[in-house]
Design brief:
heterodimer, B: 8 helices, 80% helix
Chain lengths: 294, 200
C-alpha cells in the first residue's frame, strides 16, 4: 500500500530534481512551522498555564469521561443500526414489492437529509412533542436511524455478493426464506462486510460529536466546556483532536488489516460500498448499491 | 436554501482544488510532499467536522486568525471536504493503467505534465461517482455551519423553530428542502457517470 509514484525508478536527472524539490518542500514546511511557532509565542499561547490544567488528573479525567460517553453512544448506535440495517437490507431484497419500496424510501430519506437536523429533531423536537427521551437516547436514536440506512446498503451489497448457490442450497435443505437468510446468507454477508462496517464505525464515532448541538456530554462537548472553563479553547480543541485521531486512526488501521486478510481469504476480493466510511454523511443520493469489486 | 447552495458550491470549488493538489502531492516523486499530503489527510479525516468548526472559529482567534463566519465556514468545509476529494482522486489516479504514465514519461513529459495531461483526464471516469457522493455529503455538512452562526438552510430551520415553537412540520419541511437538493445531485451524478463511462 505504498504510494505509487507515477513512474518506476527515477533516472539520475529525475533523482536530482526530486532532491531539489524535496529540499525546497522541507524548507517551506519548516518556514511554516517557524511562523506558526512565533505566532503562538507572540500571542502567549505557549504559556505553561494554558497547558497545565491537563497535567491534573481532574481535568484529564473530565475529558476522558467524555470519550467514554462518546464510545458508549457509538457502541449502542452501531449495534442498533446493524440490526435495523440488516432488516432494511432484507426488505430491499424481498420478493414482494411493498417492503422493497418502503425500505428504499427509508434509505433515500435518511441518506438525503443532514444528520445535524435529524439529531436536533431527536434532541429537541421529540421531547417537545411529548416523547420522553434523554440526551443520550436522542443522540443514539439519530445516529441509529442514519447509520441503519448506510449499513443497510453495506449488508445488501454483501448479500448480493454472495453466490446464489448459498440461498439455493439453503432452500434445497428445506429451509424457508427467512430461515435461509438468517442462518445461511446474512452471517456470511456480514462477515464479508466487516471491513466496510468497521470503517463506517470511524464515521459514526466522528458523528457522535454532534452531541454538542443537543448538549450531550461527549468528548467534544466536554472539550468545549473545559476550553471555556480554563480559557484555553485552542489547546483543549487540539487535545480533543489528538484523541479523536488516535482512536480513529487505530480503527481505520484495523479496518485496513481486516480488508487485507479478507482479500487473502476470499481471493475474489472484498466488496466496497461506495461511500461507506467516507464521511459524516455518506454516499450520494443515488440509491443503487454501488458495489465495486476490487 | 440559497445560502446553502452558495456555501456548498463555493466550498466545493476550493475542496476540488485542494483535493487535486493534495492527491498530486501524494503520488509525487518528492517524499516531503508525500508525507505532508498523508499527514494532512489522516489528521483532518480522522477528526469530526464539528471539531474543525470550533477549533477554527473559537480556537484560532487566539493566535489572531480571524475571519467572518461565512469565510470561516468556507475554509473549514473546503479543507475538510478536500481530504475526501483527495482520497477519491488518488484512487482514480491509481486506477489508470501504469503503462499510461510510463508512456508519457517515455515522451519526456514532466511529472506535472503527466498528471495534468495524461493521468487526470483518464482518472475522471472513476472519480465522478465518489466525488458526487462527496458533493451530496457537503450539501448536508454545510448545515453544521450553523454552529458558527453562518446563515444556511439548517439555521433558518432553527430560527423558525424558536419563533414558532413547532417542531415536526418545520423539520419535515427542512428534510424535503434538503432532499430537493441531494436527490437531483444523485441523478446528475448518475447521468454524468454514464456520459463519461467507457465500455470495457
Amino acid at each position: 500500500m505504498t504510494a505509487p509514484i507515477l513512474a518506476d525508478a527515477l533516472g539520475p536527472r529525475g533523482r536530482r530534481q526530486s532532491r531539489i524539490a524535496s529540499v525546497v518542500a522541507v524548507l517551506v514546511i519548516v518556514a511554516g512551522l517557524v511562523v506558526a511557532y512565533r505566532r503562538l509565542s507572540e500571542r502567549g499561547q505557549l504559556d505553561g498555564d494554558l497547558y497545565s490544567p491537563f497535567a491534573q488528573w481532574a481535568a484529564l479525567k473530565f475529558l476522558l469521561v467524555g470519550l467514554v460517553n462518546t464510545m458508549k453512544v457509538a457502541a449502542v448506535a452501531v449495534f442498533a443500526a446493524m440490526a435495523l440495517g440488516t432488516f432494511l437490507a432484507l426488505a430491499r431484497l424481498a420478493r414482494s414489492r411493498p417492503p422493497r419500496i418502503l425500505a428504499t424510501l427509508y434509505v433515500e430519506f435518511f441518506r438525503g437529509i443532514p444528520l445535524y437536523l435529524l439529531i436536533i429533531y431527536c434532541g429537541f423536537g421529540l421531547p417537545s412533542s411529548g416523547v420522553d427521551i434523554t440526551k443520550f437516547q436522542a443522540l443514539a436514536l439519530g445516529l441509529t436511524l442514519y447509520n441503519a440506512a448506510v449499513l443497510g446498503e453495506v449488508v445488501r451489497a454483501g448479500i448480493l455478493s454472495l453466490d446464489r448457490g448459498q440461498s439455493e442450497a439453503a432452500s434445497a435443505l428445506g429451509m424457508g426464506y427467512w430461515q435461509g437468510m438468517m442462518l445461511v446468507v446474512v452471517p456470511q454477508a456480514v462477515r464479508r462486510m466487516v471491513p466496510a462496517i468497521v470503517s463506517q464505525l470511524v464515521t459514526l464515532l466522528k458523528d457522535t460529536s454532534l452531541g454538542i448541538v443537543i448538549g450531550y456530554e461527549e468528548l467534544l462537548r466536554r472539550s468545549q466546556i473545559a476550553g471555556e472553563f480554563f480559557k484555553n479553547p485552542l489547546q483543549t480543541y487540539v487535545l480533543a483532536a489528538l484523541i479523536y485521531i488516535a482512536v480513529n486512526y487505530a480503527l481505520s488501521r484495523f479496518a485496513r488489516r481486516l480488508e487485507v486478510r479478507q482479500r487473502r481469504r476470499y481471493n475474489a476480493g472484498t466488496i466496497s460500498v461506495l461511500g461507506a466510511g467516507e464521511d459524516l454523511a455518506v454516499v450520494g443520493a443515488q440509491g443503487a448499491a454501488a458495489t465495486t469489486a476490487t | 436554501m440559497r445560502d446553502t447552495v452558495i456555501l456548498t458550491v463555493l466550498s466545493f470549488a476550493f475542496a476540488g482544488l485542494i483535493g487535486v493538489v493534495v492527491a498530486g502531492f501524494r503520488v509525487s516523486p518528492v517524499p516531503p510532499l508525500r508525507a505532508f499530503g498523508a499527514f494532512y489527510v489522516t489528521t483532518v479525516r480522522n477528526t469530526p467536522l464539528t471539531l474543525h468548526f470550533l477549533l477554527f472559529f473559537f480556537g484560532l482567534t487566539k493566535v489572531g486568525i480571524q475571519f467572518s463566519p461565512f469565510v470561516s465556514a468556507i475554509i473549514v468545509l473546503a479543507a475538510y471536504t478536500g481530504t475526501f476529494v483527495a482520497e477519491a482522486v488518488r484512487a482514480g489516479i491509481n486506477s489508470v493503467a501504469r503503462g499510461q504514465a510510463e508512456a508519457a514519461r517515455a515522451l519526456g513529459m514532466t511529472f506535472v505534465q503527466i498528471l495534468a495531461v495524461v493521468i487526470l483526464p483518464q482518472a475522471v471516469r472513476t472519480v465522478v461517482q465518489p466525488v458526487g457522493s462527496i458533493f451530496s455529503a457537503l450539501i448536508r455538512n454545510s448545515s453544521l455551519a450553523t454552529i458558527i452562526f453562518v446563515p444556511n438552510l439548517g439555521r433558518e430551520v432553527d430560527e423558525i423553530v424558536t419563533r414558532t415553537a413547532t417542531y415536526t412540520p418545520v423539520y419535515l419541511g427542512a428534510a424535503v428542502a434538503y432532499l430537493l437538493l441531494t436527490l437531483p445531485t444523485g441523478q446528475v451524478v448518475g447521468w454524468l457517470e454514464r456520459r463519461v463511462a467507457i465500455k470495457r
